[in-house]
Specification:
- Helix content is 90%, strand content 0%.
- The protein is mainly α.
- The chain has one domain.
- Helix 1 packs antiparallel against helix 2.
- The longest helix has 40 residues.
Length: 81
Amino acid sequence: MANRQRIRAVQCVTDLAESLVALIAEVGDELSAIQEEIADEAYLGTAQDRLASAKESAMAAIAALRQWLREAEDNDDDAGE
């Protein structure tokens, strides 16, 4: 039972992380849209680079969580047999 609770918790965290990635993408889109209005484009470029890096890190974390989730589900299936 504890394993199933961990699986549900990881699914919840994965869903939240995917939402975070979507929000990061939206912020990046907004930055791109206002880029012409910003006088200091160097700062904007740095912010966009940081957002891109954060998005990549979040996506890597999601992939790791999904892998752990698959392994936990496989172990749970094996334990149930």
